[in-house]
Amino acid sequence: SGFSCQGTIARHDEGAVVTGVWPIGGGMRIAIQPDRVVQKNGAIQSYATTWEKRSAAYNVSVHWIDAYAPDALEAISACDAFMWRFPPDANVCRFAQSLLNSVEFGLGKAVFPDWKTRWHIEDKISQTMVLKAMDFPVPQTQILWKYDQALSYIMNAEYPIVLKLASGFQSSNVRLLRSVDEGKHYLEGLF
């Protein structure tokens, strides 16, 4: 029924690396959450159907999973691995992180994306902090957790400034503030 290998065994089209212990060959069962993304240009994209086609080439059985079903964890536990290209919506990201963590660390199964490639997804604060820690150039950034710190910054900033919330994609949760009054307006809604 195949063999196992430790470490990197596959590379996704977008360059994300899949890691873990994966039994290769006949008999392997991969749980996949379906996805269907309609791009801004109208093109329809699905990683799941691509994964299904590639799995067939290796005699790997695909089991479609409804990650939102009450028995999802049980269904996934009957498989060797779990793959899910989850959408960048903040609520879905939180749920996906919880489910993928449960499968990866609780069940000990290989997942895509694994923790090392997903911990910072849709989290601008984590992304900024890790880039700074790795000494990558980032725009001047103020991460403000307290109302009084944010108010002081708003009152003394040179405008215009860009306000970004921690989550959001494709420019959602991003605003250009042109004045102290605009800054105060958004500040009141955030704290």
Note the overall shape: elongated
What kind of sheet is the major sheet? Answer: 4 strands, parallel
Report helical residue fraction: 25-40%
- Quote the average pLDDT: 83
Distance between the termini: 57 Å
Structure description:
The protein has seven helices and twelve strands. By secondary structure, it is α/β, with parallel strands linked by helices. Strands 8-5-9-10 form a four-stranded parallel sheet, sandwiched between helices. Helix 6 packs antiparallel against helix 7. 36% of the residues lie in helices and 20% in strands.
Task: Give short descriptive properties of this protein.
191 residues; alpha/beta; two-stranded antiparallel ribbon; elongated; disordered N terminus; 7 helices
Short description:
The protein contains seven helices and twelve strands. The chain has 191 residues and is of the alpha/beta class.
Task: Give the helix/strand layout.
Layout: E1 3-6, E2 10-11, E3 17-18, E4 21-24, E5 29-32, E6 37-38, E7 44-45, H1 47-57, E8 61-64, H2 72-77, E9 81-83, H3 90-106, E10 110-112, H4 115-118, H5 124-133, H6 147-156, E11 161-164, E12 174-177, H7 180-190
